[in-house]
Structure formats: C-alpha cells, structure tokens
Specification:
The chain has about 240 residues and is an alpha/beta fold. About 40% of the residues lie in helices and about 20% in strands. A 5-stranded parallel beta sheet has the order 2-1-3-4-5, sandwiched between helices. The chain has a 4-stranded antiparallel beta sheet with strand order 6-7-8-9, covered by helices on one side. Strands 10-12-11 form a 3-stranded antiparallel beta sheet.
Amino acid sequence: MDGMHAAPRVAVVEDEETIREGICAALRRDGYDADAFEDGRAAWDALERRLPDLAVLDIGVPRMDGLELCRRLRARSERLPIIFVTSRDEEIDRILGLEIGADDYLCKPFSMRELMARVKVLLRRASHIGAVREPADEIVAVGELCIDPVKLTATWKGTPVPLTVTELLLLQALAIRPGAVLTRDQLMDGGYPDKTTVSDRTIDSHVKRIRRKFTAVDAGFDAIESVYGAGYRYHAR
C-alpha cells in the first residue's frame, strides 16, 4: 500500500496446532503478518529463502528441532529477533537456546499477552536500525570498544563483533558506566528497556555469549568481570 509500511512478518514454528493457531491469531490481532509452520524442516525451507522480521520457535518441533533451526537462522542474520517457547522442564534446553542465539524464551503455559509484549519489545529494538540519531544515541567509545546504538553495531579494536540486539544493549549498559558494578536487575533494565522481566540465568547466558564473541575476535579479551554475589563490571581497556 502506498505511503504505508508493510506489517512485520513473524514466523511461528510450533507443532501443537492449538498453540500454533493461537499465536498466529494473537499476532494478526496486533497487526502482524504470521507465517505458520508445524515442523523445523518446512520452516527452514521457507525461511532460508526469505527471512522473517521475527521468529517464534518451539524447541521440540519435529524433523529439525528449534535449536538447530535457531543455529541456521542466526548464521543467516545476527539481527533477527528470535523467541523460544518450550514445554520442556530442563533448564539446560532454554539456556542452550540462548547460547545458540535466541533473544528470549517463554515456558509453556504462557499468556498470549506476555508473548505479544515480548514480540513488540524485540521488533521495536530491531527497528532502531537506521533510525534518526537522537542526542541520547551518540556513539559509545570506551577504550578499544565502540558501540553505535542506532546502527546496532559493535567493534573491538576496529574489528566488528556480531551481536544480537539484546547482547548489544546489555553490553552498552555495562560500557557506559565503566568500573561500576551493575546488578542483573540493572542489566535487565538496560537490555529489556520495555520492562520485560527475565531470569538471572538469562542475563548470565547473554553475558557468556558476549564474552565468547569478543574472545573470538581477541583471545585476550577480559573487559567484562563477574563480581560474585553482585553482578558484572566493565573495565575500560
């Protein structure tokens, strides 16, 4: 439609028909386009050709599980927002999903209102790319680290470091206060500015992935310090 933006396109990969249809109905009510898939292979065959604006993945889908699908999607795009939903009790599945590259997760049963809130948060963050720069959006340069909060890019010693939106916002929250110890709640406020609540383990997993990505660029990277019982601190280098 002329003069109007296309609705964000959300891929829903869920093998339970009732849940799949419920998520898609909620998305459409909120103005999103929803593409539904009941197994990972069908989803990958379609999404490999055209990435969505956001993906909602069940970990336990058949033919290609959500973890493998997440790996493949993340290899295609570091910026694609990904939310896991899972009925599994094992916390390791959720943590592994975050380490692979998901931005958030919800455990079944969950409310559609909560899922829609997280979809809105992640799409809003992703939309910041290319936005007009405001005074609060000045580039953050701390030692060897440089963060552009509008382009959502980070470099270390001039080398780009591929971060998800959530990872970049968490890193920025640490970097703008070098030397200060930030609690996990404070980092949650930085990484989830729309008041979405996640667990401490989710924050820990994101920090672990940030460190791993910087270490891949510089084996000597040690700028993010864990402060036992308190949180994390960024040391300017």
